[in-house]
Design brief:
Blueprint (H helix, E strand, L loop, with lengths): L6 H17 L2 H4 L3 E8 L5 E2 L1 H9 L3 E16 L2 E14 L2 E17 L5 E12 L4
Parallel strand pairs: 1-6
Antiparallel strand pairs: 1-2, 3-4, 4-5, 5-6
Length: 132
């Protein structure tokens, strides 16, 4: 694992992910995601990279508000785990919904286009929080 990977770097990846989601920019999000992505929403719906990006491009899913709090990153041997809380307002199939969840993301190193190492989101698991 490259020594330059720090918890702060992982939190920057999460910020880039958040920014792309808020902008509805699937093209900016795509390079952050592994082709092997398993994305489990807090509703228990599961997406692959292709299906998640398609939902964003077709605006089936739009993030109107997205806040990450209590973020913590743990750098392990060969992976980075990020946990936190998410508060969001999403537009799903034309209906506005409020989402409150805790999540775990797993970032793994992969070969980049130039043979370099690139860290990509390989897994996301969201768990809904009880109504406040």
């Amino acid at each position: 694992m490259p020594q330059s990977i720090t918890p702060e770097a992982a939190l920057q990846w999460e910020q880039r992910r958040r920014d792309a989601l808020l902008a509805g920019d699937a093209d900016a999000l795509a390079p952050l995601l592994s082709d092997a992505l398993v994305y489990v929403h807090s509703t228990a719906v599961q997406d692959s990279k292709a299906s998640y990006l398609r939902k964003l491009r077709e605006q089936v899913l739009r993030y109107l508000r997205l806040e990450f709090t209590d973020l913590q990153a743990q750098v392990t041997d060969g992976a980075v785990l990020v946990t936190g809380r998410m508060g969001a307002t999403v537009l799903k199939d034309g209906q506005e919904k409020q989402v409150r969840s805790v999540f775990l993301t797993v970032w793994l190193p992969e070969a980049g286009p130039a043979g370099d190492t690139v860290w990509r989101l390989c897994a996301h698991q969201g768990t809904p929080l009880p109504a406040a």
